[in-house]
Write a structure and sequence with these properties.
Elements: E1 9-12, H1 15-18, E2 41-47, H2 53-63, E3 71-77, E4 83-89, H3 92-95, H4 98-103, E5 108-114, E6 129-132, E7 141-150, H5 153-162, H6 173-182, H7 188-195, E8 201-208, E9 213-217, E10 226-230, E11 233-237, H8 240-245, E12 249-253, E13 258-263, E14 266-271, E15 280-281, H9 282-288, E16 294-295, E17 298-299, H10 300-314, E18 322-325, H11 331-341, E19 349-351, H12 363-367, E20 375-377, H13 379-382, E21 386-391, H14 398-409, E22 414-419, H15 447-454, E23 458-461, H16 464-471, E24 478-479, H17 481-484, H18 499-503
Parallel strand pairs: 1-4, 15-24, 18-21, 21-22, 22-23
Antiparallel strand pairs: 2-5, 2-11, 3-4, 3-5, 6-7, 7-8, 8-9, 9-13, 10-11, 10-12, 13-14, 16-17, 19-20
Helix pairs in contact: 6-7, 10-11, 10-16
Bound molecules: iron/sulfur cluster.
Iron/sulfur cluster binds near residues 222, 432, 479, 480 and 482.
């Protein structure tokens, strides 16, 4: 155990205190090109003495950036030392500089990238949550990162507040941190075991003390979590692509209901709760996860190609003469569609890959250009052609409508939309921001009505059976509620990601 050299601290990069070091606007802009479901969060944890754990965490988060672009954070500690946490609004590459990583070095670390699925997107809701237990409890100091959504967050929050527990954020993740920090059990593992049965909904979670990293997953396994090895150390991550980028080896998925504990004595695993059923998110395969990630043994790039093949079998477009993708989300499925249909495929758009999320308002003149900031059609490719246009999903339809219009302006003769997911008609209560039912273009409409609203010559969606065939799985151990309306776990009343904000006596700070 190393000597304790530094104080416990959260490096506050709250713009309200220090100005915005990332150069970001401190309010969410109204202009936002994204129209699809919002990715949830990405988490990472590592115990690897002798390695630059903060730097490895940084690059793991960099690989997980697609899962959340609102904030990023890392907590690190020497074995036996104090925990230092740094978090801020912005992308990973904007939040951390070289000197930050040096200050965060240690033997163990956890990290988080966030899109707000509960609570506002202010700094106080960024993670890792850093918390110390009350004097009457174990007084344990910890940092915690969470991906998912507790469906009983409001009830737990009210109970804890009635017991005098105070909160400094409005995210459900702080509830988990408070429960563990205040649990009187002697070890972090015993505390995790004690509080897991209190949580309902989706929670892939990693928590660290100054000597262990403990990861645990809800008994339905809604959100992903994988385990890896890096020389003598171990790590956990939302997706296997984060292991690849730091040179770690994928060992296996953390099982639903399992706890994995990593420390100086190596790795210990325990099944804490056997769930009534598994409910892995089907949308992870279709859209959320990176195509180079592997989930439940399936490489997503290959699975998405098979979804495109199923789409072509189920919904050919006899008059079409060219397949194009909406990049990048439709790339793999478009290749599959072309393969199965025998149609040629080409790039119909050039995508600006750096428009993940713009924080600069485009102004009146550029606003008219709309989606062109992100996609620019190629008239030389699409002009005079009858197109099959493949994308992975449609939520509200605003983007798709503009894509169809741009293709027509570029000279396309016909636009046949083919979607490698079934129609989305129901919101998600398990950690994904899907818009409300009323905002979904497929809500209460036939496919023909949707096609007309989008201005397409035809529209077709792959069936649920087609998706399950592509991943070689079935509904018994997956969640497909946003498509089918069959919710596998109890849900709170019409999900409201700001529900805790109305619970809290404090006004959330705008950040
Ligand atoms: S409702 Fe949809 S997005 Fe949410 S967990 Fe289920 S399949 Fe995934």
């Amino acid at each position: 155990m190393r000597p304790v050299l530094r104080p416990s601290v959260v490096l506050s990069t709250d713009p309200a205190l220090y100005g915005d070091r990332t150069g970001f606007m401190t309010e969410q802009p109204s202009f936002d090109q994204r129209d699809g479901p919002r990715d949830e969060c990405g988490i990472f944890g590592i115990y690897a003495p002798g390695k630059e754990v903060a730097r490895l965490t940084y690059f793991a988060l960099y690989a997980l950036q697609h899962r959340g672009q609102e904030s990023a954070g890392i907590a690190a500690a020497d074995d036996g030392g104090f925990i230092i946490t740094q978090r801020a609004l912005g992308l990973v590459s904007q939040v951390f500089k070289e000197h930050d990583l040096r200050a965060l070095d240690g033997d163990l670390a956890i990290g988080h990238v966030r899109y707000s699925t509960t609570g506002s997107s202010g700094w106080e809701n960024s993670q890792p949550v850093h918390r110390t237990g009350s004097a009457t409890s174990s007084g344990r100091e910890l940092a915690l990162a969470h991906n998912g959504n507790l469906t009983n967050a409001v009830e737990l929050h009210a109970e804890l507040r009635a017991q005098g527990v105070e909160f400094s954020s409005t995210s459900d993740s702080e509830i988990i941190a408070a429960l563990i920090a205040d649990d009187p059990s002697a070890t972090i593992e015993e505390s995790v075991r004690a509080i897991m049965p209190l949580l309902q909904g989706a929670f892939s979670t990693v928590v660290m003390t100054n000597e262990r990293v403990v990861a645990f997953r809800d008994p339905a396994g809604v959100r992903p979590l994988v385990l890896g090895q890096i020389d003598d150390g171990y790590c956990v991550a939302s997706e296997s692509c984060a292991l690849d980028i730091i040179g770690a080896t994928y060992m296996r998925d953390v099982l639903p209901g399992e706890m994995v504990s990593i420390g100086a004595d190596g790795i210990r695993t325990q099944m804490v709760i056997e769930g009534a059923r598994k409910a892995f998110c089907l949308f992870e395969y279709i859209y959320f996860a990176r195509p180079d990630s592997k989930m439940n043994g399936t490489v997503l790039q290959a699975a998405r190609g098979r979804m495109g093949e199923a789409l072509a079998r189920e919904h050919p477009a006899p008059s079409a003469d060219l397949v194009i993708a909406v990049p990048d989300s439709g790339n793999a499925a478009a290749r599959g569609y072309a393969r199965e249909s025998g149609l040629p495929q080409d790039d119909g758009f050039v995508k600006n890959r750096y428009v993940a999320r713009t924080f600069i308002q485009p102004g009146q003149e550029l606003r008219k250009q709309g989606l062109r900031l992100k996609f620019n059609p190629l008239p030389e490719i699409v002009g005079g052609r009858k197109l099959v246009v493949v994308d992975d999903s449609i939520v509200r339809g605003n983007t798709t409508r503009q894509i169809v219009q741009m293709l027509r302006e570029a000279g396309a003769l016909e636009v046949h939309l083919r979607i490698s997911a079934p129609p989305i008609r129901n919101p998600c209560y398990y950690g994904v921001d899907m818009s409300t039912r009323e905002e979904m273009i497929a809500h209460g409409k036939t496919v023909e009505e949707i096609a007309e609203m989008l201005g397409a010559d035809s529209l077709a969606y792959v069936s649920l059976e087609g998706v399950y065939g592509a991943i070689e799985g079935g509904p018994a151990n997956h969640c497909d509620a946003c498509f089918s309306g069959n919710y596998p776990l109890p849900v709170a009343e019409e999900g409201n990601k700001l529900a805790l904000e109305s619970e809290l006596p404090m006004a959330p700070t705008s950040a």
